Amino acid sequence: MANPAECTIKVMCRFRPLNKSEVARGDSYIPKFQGEDCVLITGKPYYFDRVFQSNTTQEQFYNAVAQQIVKDVLDGYNGTIFAYGQTASGKTHTMEGVLHDTDMMGVIPRIVQDIFNYIYSMDENLEFHIKVSYFEIYLDKIRDLMDVSKTNLSVHEDKNRVPYVKGASERFVCSPEEVMDAIDEGKNNRSVAVTNMNEHSSRSHSIFQINIKQENAQTGQKLTGKLYLVDLAGSEKIGKTGAEGTVLDEAKMINKSLSALGIVISALAEGSNYIPYRDSKMTRILQDSLGGNCRTTMVICCSPSAFNEAETKSTLLFGQRAKTIKNSVTLNVELTAEQWKKKWEKEKEKNKTLKNTVDTLESELQRWRTGESVPEEEQFDKEKAKEEVQAVENVLNHDKMAATPALGGPPGVQLQGPGGGTSGAELSKLYKEMDDKDDEIDQQSQLLEKLNQQMQDQEELLASSHRDHDKLQTELNRLLSENEASKEEVKEVLQALEELAVNYDQKSQEVEDKAQEFEALSEELNQKSSSLASIDTELQKLKEMTNHQKKRVTEMMSSLLKDLAEIGSAMGTKEIKQQESTGVIDEEFTVARLYISKMKSEVKSTVRRSRQLEGAQAESDQRLAETEKELAACQLLTSQYEAKIRSLTESVQILEQKKRQLEESVDALNEELVKISAQEKVHATEKEKMQSANEVKDAVQKQIMSHREAHQKQISSLRDELDSKEKQITELQDLNQKISLEQERLRAEHEKLKAADQERNRKLQELTGIQDRREQAKQDLKGLEETVARELQTLHNLRRLFVQDLNTRVKRNADADSDDTGGSAMQKQKIAFLESNLEQLTRVHKQLVRDNADLRSEIPKMEKRLRATVERVKALELALKEAREVAGRDRKRYQQEVDRIKEAVRSKNMSRWRTAAQIAKPIRPGQQPGAPPANPGVVRPNSVQTPQPAGLRGGGGGGAPAQQDKSSYSYDC
Ligand code: ADP
Ligand code: MG
């Protein structure tokens, strides 16, 4: 490309191989290749700059097609590579290929690599600034693939009237890896944004743009090159790819840019004055590449399958059309001051030349006007002037100082119509207006988009906030219920604590009471034991006294008896002795009498008691006999009932059997009935057959009727019988039940009576024992009575003898001497004294006996009481021990319970505090975790995260921790 200011678009045609499905389908391979630039489809040749067969490798293709472009771009020209073709024709394969595969990578990664390789080999004084942009056009909207937030970018024109995508992200890169990263990122963004990537990629155009700016550090010369690498949307008609789902408008929009591209190319090919670049955003962006300041290569990708023949043909025609387009390429250079100066001088020179030409022309015109004829050799030489100007321009071109678009006029030569300056100005004005409108539309659509997005965002936000609200509500409800539950639990725990406390109080009270009681009882016991000891000593004393008294009495008695014996013995010998003995006998008599009377009364009472007991025994005997009789009667009744039950059961069984028999007979009768009815039927058929057998039939019928009646009667009677039997059975069952009930009652009564009988027997035995004892006592008493009677008799005899003797003596004495009266008086006195003495003694003895008896009777009582007291003490001690154990256990349990409750409360609080910490955290915006709080009232995350329940807090806890707790609770609520 030495100096081709004007160049056509290069069109390369590439056929891919048949794919698997096409091979499987057996599609034929339709292209036929002729040379390097011709392909025949069904005999028709299509010529391109180069045609690549299906076996062309990526590297071969790149070397042939794209390598030159890298050089051009780095030399300061603009370049574009398009990939055009139907879906699955190999556009992406050609442009991208397998990105990180050295063999399969397509044009873009190879260009990237080459650019850098080329730069590395270039002059050291050159400084490069490379930036890349990546965007796609879908539904005529430009979406930035490097920044997904930019979804609808607009196209503007720079000061040189070159369109560019306004606001597209530009990433500066300094290595091929960075470029590849950008491509990866863009592709990733592209696939993330859509649901069906294949469909999307076939309907959208992706444009990768590389801007290279270079500056020569020595000369200060700046060159810029712009490279567009375009993977176009599938060129097929929408209907074929199955876009039925899309609405018509959308389908139109999908194809809009592509059809606009087709129209632009057609217009350019036809050399039309008006090129509708503005019909779509894509044509606007690529305005420079299509008939502008750009070296453009179009790769038309084709399928070799016969199935896609139509599409392939249309693609090839499109390529042929594009081939005719001419671009006028200029170098994008920014002039240095020196260059500008030179350029100015040259221009001045050119100007001078032109001015000379004008002057020459004017003088010539003047001469013509004045009527003078100008000889041919003096006339203006157009060719010469042109040559002169060309010479000047050539000098300019030679210096590579072609004017930039800004200086050298607009690059789109086609836009400069033959209409000249005025129409051009109008056109540019109109374009400006259109640009403004475009801008406005863009702004509006962007606004709309933004608003839509905002609306969607808002809706989403609303929905999410609704969801959040719901979630929070449920959470709140849950927390509330939890709170309620924990409150309830706390209440319960408190209640339990209270109960425990009350229980504990009660128990301690009880323990105290028990202790007091124990003390009182021990005191009582002490008292009792002391009193018992005193009683014992008293008893001992009394016993001693009794013994003493007894001794004395026996002594006295023995002395009395001795006296009596002495008297008795003396009576026979001496009168005085007789007199003395009379007194002693009297005394003894009185004592004996007393004894006897006592004995008598005792005997009487014993007899009385015995009689009473006998009467009671007789009564109980009688009652026993009665009860036994009753029992016998009951047993009899029971056996009777049992027999009856047995007989009833038997009768029930018999009835059952009868019933069964009857049922069997009923069944038999039924069978017979069936048979008869069958016979009847047979007869009936026979009747039809034989009219003459009518009589027989009647007879049979009658017979049947009579049979039936008899059967029915029998059945009804049997049924009645059955009913009556059933009734009987139920009655008998009732009776049976009654009887069994009665029997049970009787049995219970019998048991009771038996028990009573046993009790009575026991009592009887007791009574017999008592009776025996009484008998014994009676006999003893009798013996005693007898001895007493004998003694009395002897005493009586003695007394009589004594009285007789005394009388005789008295008589004798009265006869003999009157002095003896004094002696008898003395004796009398003595006797009276002795008697009174005896009486006294008897009384004392009686009293003593009584006291003794009382005391004796007291002893068992006291012993009993003592025993009872000891038992009570023991029981109390036991109870106390138990109470102590129970109290200990209770205390232990209480302690455990308290510990457990404390633990539970603490864990509850822990969890609550933890929850509080989690809730509290987001409430404090801007506070660093662990940073000291601005004021002590605010919860510190640390303090919230490690809470200590009030009950478990150490002694160090003052007002501040309490405040913290409070605050954490305030979050909790
Ligand atoms: P498009 O981008 O035009 O829709 P693709 O580039 O995705 O089509 O190609 C479709 C399939 O055909 C891919 O699997 C690709 O690998 C394969 N393919 C396309 N061109 C070639 C080729 N020249 N050689 C081998 N395989 C190819
Ligand atoms: Mg593709």
Features:
single chain, 973 residues, 70% helix, binds adenosine-5'-diphosphate, binds magnesium ion, microtubule binding, Kinesin_motor_dom, Kinesin-like protein, cytoplasm
- Radius of gyration, in Å, reads 74 Å
| Mean pLDDT across residues | 77
DSSP helix fraction: 55-70%
The portion of residues forming beta strands comes to 5-15%
Shape: elongated
Number of helices: 19
Flag low-confidence runs. Answer: 239-244, 400-422, 912-973
Ends distance: 82 Å
Bound molecules: adenosine-5'-diphosphate, magnesium ion
Largest sheet data: 10 strands, mixed
Q: Using DSSP, what is the number of strands?
A: 17
Please identify the oligomeric state.
single chain
Helix-and-strand structural type: alpha+beta
Structure in words:
- With 973 residues, the protein is of the alpha+beta class.
- It contains 19 helices and 17 strands.
- The strands form four sheets. Strands 2, 6, 7, 8, 9, 12, 13, 14, 15 and 17 form a ten-stranded mixed β-sheet that branches. It has a three-stranded antiparallel β-sheet with strand order 3-4-5, covered by helices on one side. It has a two-stranded antiparallel ribbon with strand order 1-16.
- Helix 15 runs antiparallel to helix 16 and helix 17 (820-923) crosses helix 19 (959-972).
- It is elongated.
- Mean pLDDT is 77; it is low at 239-244, 400-422 and 912-973.
- Bound molecules: adenosine-5'-diphosphate and magnesium ion.
- Residues 16-17, 19, 85, 87-93, 202, 234, 301 line the site of adenosine-5'-diphosphate (ADP).
